[in-house]
Structures are given as structure tokens and as C-alpha cells.
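Q: What structure does this chain adopt?
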Amino acid sequence: MVLEKMALVGDALSHVALPGLALGILFGFNEFIGAFIFLFISAVLIWHVGRVTRLSFETIVGAAFTLALAIGIIMLQNVEALSEALFGDITQVGLIDTVIAVAVAVVAILLTRLIYKQLVLGMISEDIAISRGIKLGRIDLLYLLLVSVVVAVGIRIVGTLLAGFLVIVPAASAKNLSLSLKRYTLLSAFLGAISAFSGVLASGIINIPQAPAGPLVVIAGIIIFSATIVAKWRMK
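A:
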């Protein structure tokens, strides 16, 4: 998403999931499932509207996320429930949530590897990709669904407002240190894991209500991002 200059789409999609989270909280089922279902339906609709209207993903997602945010806030009148949906709490993630997240991550990685060459070629030149028989419409749909899955996993950790961080910042940090796509991919995952671990560790050390794990994960990631900017500048 960073390479395609669509980083903010990941952040916007996290807001689209808010009504699904609200349904899970109101009716007592797993919020992750509600978010995933809502994101899945929204991704298909966004893809279809984009093909019909030829509008950019950013425009359509921008309209969708403002609508979803408004609906979600109306549904969640309880301030505590709204705070949980917006900011999440990784310390409350249980075994079932962990198993689901790992399973979803494995599927997302395998599917990404499956479409990797087509996706990269489409980023380089859509005309060349089409001339080689690549169906970019289907690739874009699968790509959006994969992003939706990743965002849904992130929401359970840091909530809808901060889930975009997990999509954007580790990849942006890795870009500052990478000279190849392979290194870029591996380093993005590594820096994301370091950010999450550091934020949770800091939350346990500080141990005050004003410093929950989600925001601290983001702060840790931004510190890493700043360090990579300095490192890139020093290497010039």
C-alpha cells in the first residue's frame, strides 16, 4: 500500500469496520468477526463502485469510512464501548482471538505470495500487466480483501483509530532501509513485530490507565520510524 501511494486507504478501512464492531459489542459476539464481515462486504462494494464509476480507491473509501464512522458512533452510545472499539486493548486478547489472528495472517501471507508477481507488475505498469493477460480487476479485489483482513486483525489490537498504523508505519520504516522488495517485505514484518512487543512491554512497565498498550504500540513504531529516517539521512 505504501508503494502504491495508498497508505491512507488502510487507515480509512479501519473506520469502515466500526459498525461491525458495534454490532459485536451490542449483541455479544466476537467483535473481530463483526469487523471482518463488515470489511469484507465493504471491500467488495468499494471495488465494484470503483469499476463502475472509475473513481479512485481513495475517493470511494473516504466516502465509505465517513458514513461508517457516523453509523458506528450512533450505534455505540456507551462511552466505554466506544472507547474499546476506537482504541482496542491488546491485553484483553485471548487464546481464541490469537488463534484466529494467526490463521488469518498465514492465509493472508500465502495469498499475497500467490499474487505477488502480478501485483508488482501492475504497480510498475498497468499496460504491461494487461498485455500479459493479468486480470487487474480480480487482483485489485483480492488485494482489497487482503488489506481488509489485515486491518480487521489490527483493530483487535489497537482499535479502529490506530489500526492504520500497522498497515502504514512499519512498511514506511522498512522502505527507508531497504534496497530490494524481498528485504522490504521481511523488514516490514519484523519492525511491526518489534513495535507491538515494545508497546506491550512499555504498557506493563508504566502500568497506568492513561497509557494503554494500543497507543504505546503506535508510539514505539513512530520512534522506530524516526530512527530509520535518521539512519537513511546518515547513509547519504
